[in-house]
Amino acid sequence: MNSPATLARDIDGKAIAATVLGEVAEQVRELTAQGIHPALAVVLVGDNPASQVYVRNKILRAGEAGIVSIERRLPSTCSQQELLEVIAMLNADPGVHGILVQLPVPAHIDEAAVIHAIDPAKDVDGFHRENVGGLVQGQDVLTPCTPSGCMRLLEETCGDLSGKHAVVIGRSNIVGKPMATLLLQAHCSVSIVHSRSVDAPALCRLADIVVVAVGKPKLIDASWLKPGAVVIDVGINRIDTPHGPKLVGDVDYNSARLVASAITPVPGGVGPMTIAYLLKNTVLAASKAPRIA
Ligand code: NAP
User: Fold this and answer.
1) Residue 181 lies in a domain
2) For ligand 1, is residue 210 a contact (CB within 6 Å)?
3) 189 within a domain of the structure (yes/no)
4) Owning domain of residue 44
5) Interval 134-153: pLDDT, tens
6) What is the CB neighbour count within 10 angstroms for residue 191?
7) Residues 6+ apart with CB under 8 A from 259
8) What are the distances in angstroms from CA 114 to CA 121, 129, 225?
9) Could you give the number of structural domains in the chain?
10) Is residue 102 flagged as an active site residue?
């Protein structure tokens, strides 16, 4: 256990995201000087309140970085065909460099069909199978934003990750699997823990680096951690407390910081990095786009 004087230090996602956004703004200036105006199209279907907040934040941050944003809102009753037509128009528009369809889409729409309708060169979420396959093969492709943001947090915290043992808890397509792939590319030894793992805490206690993306409030406490482990908490869970609703991660922060050497708080850890890497992907897509004559 850490003494009170040696509690784990916070990994400041807000500050690191601000650095990334500064890099993005610089890249936007360079592209603009060449006559390219990076543009992100955000498509929102329906009126899910959480999705509306996410979309608003993405558009706000894009504007601050000098990225043009194009918003397309469709009613929750729109057909899959109507949504696919909007995507086809954005694919064909040379002035649009990134396309993001805010998930989840309403249940009557096939999410996979929507993801795979996006031009892989404009797929700034990195969810298209062409980008997923490219990532696994180590190619230079658009990579999912949350895992990319977690990698930056780890590089800023640990420096070289080579040879470290990383445990990723969760195996979703959007976080767990790409996270494990990126850690492998950084020469970590990687284990993936999921709901069927036998004695998950024991597996986790082997890790120098723990990345948690489960969606269960405070699942991981000090008893899951090796002393000195670095902990990245991707989880965002809304819980009710006597003082009102509160956001917490998948890690019991107060318990984990007694044992870990560094940990991301929730909020203020991974969350800001996700938007920063969405915008980084947008400028990357713009820099690779065919030049308009
Ligand atoms: P998901 O698709 O629901 O996947 C959850 C994963 O956790 C699954 O692989 C599941 O295993 C595993 N799991 C469930 N219970 C477990 C247990 N007791 N022990 C070990 N593994 C267990 O979730 P997701 O989309 O990856 O999101 C995870 C969390 O991250 C959510 O809180 C979400 O809100 C948050 N999130 C945050 C950001 C951000 O920007 N900060 C971005 C994306 C997601 P099985 O595969 O065996 O079912």
Assistant:
1) yes
2) no
3) yes
4) 34-127
5) 999 999 999 999 999 999 99
6) 17
7) 1, 2, 8, 222, 225, 226, 227, 228, 229
8) 15, 12, 39
9) 2
10) yes
